[in-house]
Amino acid sequence: MTPRRGAVMVPLMLWGYALVAMIPLFVMVLGSLRPTQDLFNDPIGLPNKLYLSNYTRAWTEASFSTYVLNSVVVVTGAVILGAAVSVLAAYPLGRRKFTGRGFFIGYFISGMTLPGHFGVLPLFYLLDGLNLVDSRLGLMLVYAAGSVPFNVFVLSAFFRQLPGELDEAAALDGAGPFATFRHIMLPLVRPAIATVVVFQFVPLWNDFFYPLVLLRDESKLTIPVGLTHFFGRFQNDWGTLFAGLVMTTLPLVILFGIATRQIVAGLTAGMNR
Amino acid sequence: MAQAPVTTRGRGGRAGTWYLFLVPALLLYSLFVVYPLLTGLSYSVFSWKGTVRDAFVGVDNYVGLFTNEAFRSKLLPALGHNLALFAGTMLVQNTMGLAFALAFSRARRGKRALQIIFATPYLVNPLVIGYLWTLLLSPTFGPANTLLRAIGPDELAKPWLGDPSTALPMVILITTWQWVGFPMLLFSAAIGGIPAEYAEAARVDGASSWRVFWHITLPLLRPAIGTITVLSFIGSMNTFALVYALGGSSGGPAGSTDVLGLLFYRAAFASGDINAVGTASALAVFLFTFIFGTTILLNRILRQGEEAM
């Protein structure tokens, strides 16, 4: 290829693929703003006026309001609980020497390579015994537990980087371990906590497998399984279907908009292993 | 070590305190992650009557996966589809990712914006992507087929996802559409790390662009190719939500997109078999060993290749 021809072809190819990447997502958004009859009459078209009924229908009739509320409660609860127990454990693991420290670090971190899905049958019976099948609390506990390995890994690395004199000074002033942790350490690791909270939020918001297995009752479903029921019930109402897809995607787009830094920090924390 | 004094005190009077900090995380993680994984192993060596554990049967459940004709006739095609997905991902998605990364290494304007656009579908829930493409590719009102009818011969407009012969290739293309940004970014980073003098020196010696790519760039990308190969393998083996959205829990049409994840889900929760727990547990252990073992093997082969250079 001569340099001149390449200078034209390469940008053309790149912008061409950019269209391929974006058009389906545009079609999804545009389709959600058109009445279904319009979509059937003219599959490739633009909305001619602001039409939001698809959204109101998906929100109320298709119980998206319930799914979204459940997802928000379960996922928020899980990331907070997961971060809370992990930050407690990460403090001594990252900064203190005590018998068994190496073992506990290995025990927690090994969870990062284990695919939890393979334990789903025993997990199901365990939760059944605890009366936590078909329960939002049960799903939340499973998610929080699954987030522990990554959280401990990132947070203990963060604790390790803090200057050593800090706890020393607190101890000289007579502060006990819990007071030192709460008043000196916790405020300093806040950025790292934000990183693990945001980073865990995305996969849990999207998770489909655990709620598929663990939840039954329509009123308890989180968005992903709710979406599969919704697609069955509204299969002929395309406008509403598109609106449901947009509503599932939007919270993550907003999250990425406001927290790109935390997400990138989480990604690189995982890579520099 | 600045920490030394604190350490001594901790070891002296209050070592037990540090265990208290660990207790909540230990409880949660051991109960809901470690215990189920370990128990799964024991489940697989017993026969089951519904949810009641019956007799110890050793490896019978494992043998059954391959000798029970009803099960084997599902297992082998599903495994084949996962491997086809892996091959397709390597050939289509990762080759495209490399081509894009090479193109970006020369592009001057709009590089950052384009890279973000390419990676955008990766942020969308696989379930949403599956349903979105079901609508786009619908034979009746799907925009894709309307477009194909408008620009080409009518034979192009067909139920791409409804035809068993084209459904799996479509899964590969949709997966590519979602993930291509990932190899692109990894390859871009790797290409950025190659000193420009290497290629310049070769060009001065009269090497064509193709030869520079083949003899200089590509060999230097080996570590990146290795990483992407391993991640693609794990991703292809674990695919679930996308195929569920495209073809339902039985991998339709006619099982042409059935994969191991769906098969495991059905074996565990929707088979009606009296020994479902035993069979599904054996399948889980087998899959875990297969995926984990192959990953380690792939890693070793790719590393050896690097050292041989």
Automatic annotation (TrEMBL), chain A:
The chain crosses the membrane at residues 12-33, 67-91, 103-125, 137-159, 188-205, 238-259. Keywords: Cell membrane, Membrane, Transmembrane, Transmembrane helix, Transport. Pfam families: BPD_transp_1 (PF00528). It is a multi-pass membrane protein. SUPFAM superfamilies: MetI-like (SSF161098). Belongs to the binding-protein-dependent transport system permease family. This is Sugar ABC transporter permease. It comes from Phytohabitans aurantiacus.
TrEMBL record, chain B:
Keywords: Cell membrane, Membrane, Transmembrane, Transmembrane helix, Transport. InterPro entries: MetI-like, MetI-like_sf, UgpAE/MalFG_permease. The keyword Transmembrane applies. The keyword Protein biosynthesis does not apply. Residues 79-298 form the ABC transmembrane type-1 domain. Its main location: membrane. The chain crosses the membrane at residues 18-38, 83-104, 116-136, 167-191, 212-235, 277-302. It is a multi-pass membrane protein. PROSITE patterns: ABC_TM1. It is found in: Cell membrane. Belongs to the binding-protein-dependent transport system permease family. This is Sugar ABC transporter permease. It comes from Phytohabitans aurantiacus. The lineage of its organism: Bacteria, Bacillati, Actinomycetota, Actinomycetes, Micromonosporales. The gene is yurN.
